[in-house]
Amino acid sequence: MGEIEGTVQGHRDGHGFLMPDDGQPDVYLSSQEMHAVMHGDRLRVRVVRMDKRNRPEGRVLEILDRRKKPIIGRLLLESGIWLVAPEDKRYGQDILIPKNAIANATAGQIVAVELTEPPSLYSQPVGRVTEVLGEIDDPGMEIEIAVRKYEVPHAFSADTLAQAAKLPDRVRATDMKHRIDLRDVALVTIDGEDARDFDDAVYCEPHKQGRGKTAFKGWRLLVAIADVSHYVKPGESLDRDAYERATSVYFPRRVIPMLPEKLSNGLCSLNPEQDRLSMVCDMLVTEAGELHAYQFYPAVINSHARFTYTEVAAILGNTHGPEAHKRKTLVPHLLHLHEVYRALLSQRAKRGAVDFETTETQIVCDDNGRIEKIVPRTRNEAHRLIEEAMLAANVCAADFIAGGKHASLYRVHEGPTTEKRTTLQAYLRALGIGMGISDDPTPGEYQAIAQATKDRPDAQQIHTMLLRSMQQAIYTPFNSGHFGLAYQAYTHFTSPIRRYPDLLVHRVIKALLGSKKYALDAHKMEAANPLPKRPGKAAPKIPNPGLVSTEIERWEVVGAHCSANERRADEASRDVEAWLKCRYMRDHLGEEFAGTVSAVTTFGLFVQLDAMYVEGLVHITELGGEYFRFDDVRQELRGERTGIRYGTGARVQVQVSRVDLDGRKIDFRLVRDQDEHRLLRGASRDKFGDKFGDKRGGGKGPARKQDKRADQRARREAAAAPAATVEPMPMPPPDPPTAVDALERIEHADRVLKAERRKSERASKGAATHPVKAAKRSARSAAKSVAAKGSGAPAAKTTRRKRGPAA
Questions:
Q1: Are residues 47 and 2 in contact, defined by beta-carbon separation less than 8 angstroms?
Q2: Which of 245, 285, 297, 794 is most solvent-facing, going by the fewest CB within 10 Å?
Q3: What is the rounded average pLDDT of the residues 446-453?
Q4: What is the pTM of this model?
């Protein structure tokens, strides 16, 4: 078999996978092969066979390149030997640290390690401590671990900081040249309470023009976006660091920004009552919510107010309330924004855009960075208002670039793959939902199912399945439309402070406005971070950054880099949230909570707690002493004997049994009611029998004898007790039989029927004599009769001795 080159992705169980560079199927590497390599190394392997799961299995031929990034872990002292246990369990083995290389760190601290000796087949890796981060319980330590574990750039270069320091503190008169002055327009920002960087400001007014058939009636909607491209020029140090990060990373209580704070929170942020440079998308929206016309131009603005979502929602809900009274000069503009939002929303419904009502959560931390509570993040009318305004501006940007035939990045979201579509169709049929999706599904079909099921108890799980069936959105120069939003062309234009693709789109729009062409600089090919390949998934077809020759290939590489860093940021944020939730639930060990089954797998149930919005696993071994079969169509586990089913959306009561802070895992134990206990106990007795009795659960084992002795003791005590006069109590009416009782009766009848069948089979076998055995028995009888006649003694009666221990 051929030789393959690629990158190793380790597994916490010790084995690993080679991710081939050319997109071939993953190659399985056994734990023995992984002894000499580590997660992230580049290898050349030879496929030697196909394993029992029909996966190619490889043997390491050569290690092409060792991973050179520091490894984050906890320093431990075991039997006088210093070692570091990596936080990323994909490394698979601990790192030995010489006593003189611990850098004054103490046991239990979190450190960064640089390898000095790589692992081999017969030895562990050796390293030295390069950085001491602190104690595991220090405030913010989980973030320090995550940014290093996922290699998130968190420190700006000296050149970048020097360049940012040279920028002015305010907009200068020379910066306003060749810009439209909109400082008298009542543009406002609407963001969350904890927002610090303001990308966008909005304004709306009713608009009429023309007469007769050409008359227009609707609204003029202005979306002003911070003009980051004026300060961040291609090829400069600021641009290099921004491209390397590609996005800001948001953690609870901390943000790793894409740009230095002087830009992200100062010069570029649309702070209230401050002159700021912006790129404006000026739109005309009809009463039906259609985009009638638009234009882009650079401008200078002055935000008239900084609103929060909560404040705007309160004003829209009560225009005579205290919030509205405080901002009475701006209330009419907010009402116009709400009017155009309602029109855009109606057009969204006509397009059939998918709109799932999912519950997002917000972690509220104390001063020490520990969770105080987890609350749902509610979306109000103000959130949706800003969302529709931003969508309209993004669509106009995509249309403008497509019309100008200039290469750029689109935000592409394709429809479901054939495999995911088939799985979803089967799932909907199994739930008895009359609606389904066609072989060529449209967003409208998804939205129709979401609307039809929104009042069902399992609506959250159905919507989650709909969401999982769709592909992940990516950045690419090839416009394939946006399936979820039902747009023919879509891009990101509205957040250049925190997303690098938006900054590129601004540069392209400026080039088109000036009748020029924007070309990507060569540095972006050198610093490109390829889109990571997931185990078991097809590799994205991305050109090698070092071999690109055309402009479209360069844009393709840049799109893959931005998509990869977006995923990296999401993974780092989820890792921190998981750590915080585990730390939070460690204080609730042994407590019981109500929850909902959010997902079902072959190994158990994932349950989300109602009160805390925390998810944990009920392992399949906690479900009872019977065999549970996983139904991937219905997404449920079903007991073979009892018929008990656990599916998505099921309500359960659980107890917090275990918290693994290092593994970011929470384990639950199922708390059952009496009916379930009785039913599962019967099923377990049926299948396995009494531990000391026979297979039918009867027998005369010690447990049965102990129960019998307890009953006899209770009767003797009752007989010895003095008689008492007790008023007869009326017997309560019997409870109506439940479904569990009915199922138990059916199981009992089934057991009786099978026992009778076995008894009759044994009787019939005893009646029918095997011909060979009968002949032998007759011969033995005849021989004994002849012998008895010859000796004159009476014939002895023969009996077959029972098997048993020798006397």
A1: yes
A2: 794
A3: 89
A4: 0.79
